[in-house]
Design goal:
Layout lengths: L5 H7 L13 H4 L11 E5 L4 H12 L5 E6 L9 E4 L7 H4 L5 E4 L10 H21 L4 E5 L30 H17 L4 E7 L1 E3 L5 H4 L6 E4 L5 E2 L1 E3 H12 L6 E4 L5 E2 H8 L3 E4 L1 H13 L22 H5 L8 H12 L3 E3 L2 E3 L1 H7 L1 H24 L1
Parallel strand pairs: 1-2, 1-4, 2-3, 4-5, 5-6, 6-11, 7-10, 8-13
Antiparallel strand pairs: 9-12, 14-15
Length: 387
């Protein structure tokens, strides 16, 4: 594998010391309901769990936030927020948003196991409804959260990418088609609804209670490396994403905001830090097997997910940095937390194995079995065509 250009390597500065004085967790920050009479009223969708719950707790604890309105299909644990229980696709959400200054829309379904058509229907329709409802309710800003995956993982990507880089992703990876449509809706909304501002936050590989094709990559017994590829790994801890979203809420930064740890890790560094050895395959074999396994339902991840483990899609985060924001986590620290989270899980080609399956098949054996299954399918189809 070729090394980066020396000037690029010098610019990375990825191996600096760990971040000093990391901020306490979101839960620790909260000391009660803010009594400040100033600041915006903020509505958060998807507030009952995951990132939405963490952000709700953080905003409630902030003296710069007047009130938090929480919306979800069930009530969350943050008692200090004002709760409304409904589906974000329900037009009645407009009434619940009245009085809010800012809406942070986090009610997205990016679950690998969700039917893709149902996932798209929820994500796109939900975003459309929230944007329209926010405009109708007099909200002046909506903050959307997509992913830096929308830039695409391509061999000629600059290291790092600026926020203004062209969105060159395709809809071939899990959920990326939905995210690209959300980006399109974000660009169109201010024209369709004059007076409505939209900020889009794009995190790198998100870690901290998340389950994605990219976090499952580190559950594998061997790290799949496609021959001739040039991976570059940049992570984003959910606590850093929450602080970036708060910057967007308070209008300290606007527009398209990329967020992640400073710099990146090369594949060799990831292997050294994780202690997981690689399994290198030719491009045609890896991509072909991934496509066939997904097509016959053996794995949840389409072949498009592989591109994000092959080529760089590192972002600079310059707009947030210019506004004074800094990540509190390094790539090395986030990778260590990710490895701790996935410890004991067994994934091959994106498919989770039970402990019994993993023990019986063995690490490399399970990989070979899945790749072999794809080869068997291909041979069977060729045989049928000859008949």
């Amino acid at each position: 594998m070729s090394s980066p250009d020396p000037q690029v390597r010098a610019a990375r500065n990825h191996s600096g010391p760990p971040s000093p004085d990391r901020q306490p967790s979101v839960t620790a920050l909260r000391s009660g309901v803010s009594t400040s009479a100033r600041g915006p009223v903020v509505a958060v969708t998807g507030a009952a769990s995951g990132l939405g719950a963490l952000l709700t707790e953080r905003l409630v604890a902030s003296e710069e936030i007047k009130q938090v309105i929480a919306l979800d299909e069930r009530r969350g644990e943050c008692a200090a927020a004002q709760w409304h229980i409904l589906d974000v696709r329900d037009p009645a959400i407009a009434e619940k948003l009245r009085g809010a200054d800012v809406v942070v829309h986090l009610a997205l379904d990016l679950d690998l196991e969700t039917d893709s058509a149902a996932r798209t229907a929820y994500n796109v329709r939900g975003t459309q409804t929230v944007l329209t409802a926010a405009a109708a309710a007099g909200v002046h800003r909506v903050v959307l959260c997509t992913s830096s995956m929308v830039y695409g993982a391509l061999p000629d990507n600059e290291l790092p990418l600026s926020e203004d880089a062209e969105l060159r992703a395709t809809a071939e990876a899990t959920g990326v088609g939905d995210l690209l449509e959300i980006e399109r809706l974000a660009r169109r909304a201010p024209r369709a609804h004059p007076g409505l501002n939209v900020t889009v936050v794009r995190p790198a590989v998100l870690v901290g209670g998340t389950d994605t094709a990219l976090t499952r990559y580190f559950e594998s017994p061997r790290l799949l490396v496609v021959a001739g590829s040039r991976p570059a790994w940049q992570f984003c801890h959910v606590e850093d994403l929450c602080s970036a979203l708060e910057y967007a809420v308070l209008e300290k930064a606007e527009g398209e905001l990329a967020v992640g740890c400073d710099g990146w890790l090369e594949q060799e560094e990831v292997e050294e830090l994780s202690g997981i050895r690689r399994m290198e395959l030719p491009s045609a074999v890896a991509l072909g097997a991934a496509a066939r396994l997904h097509r016959i339902g053996l794995t949840p991840s389409p072949a498009g997910d592989l591109a994000y483990t092959m080529y760089p899609w590192v972002v600079s985060g310059s707009r947030l940095h210019d506004a004074g924001w800094r990540p509190q986590w390094t790539n090395e620290e986030v990778l260590a937390e990710l490895l701790e989270e996935v410890s004991g899980r067994h994934t091959v080609a994106g498919r989770r194995l039970g402990r019994k399956d993993a023990t019986a098949a063995g690490a490399a054996g399970a990989t070979v079995a899945l790749l072999g299954a794809a080869a068997v399918v291909r041979r069977a189809r060729k045989a049928r065509r000859r008949i």
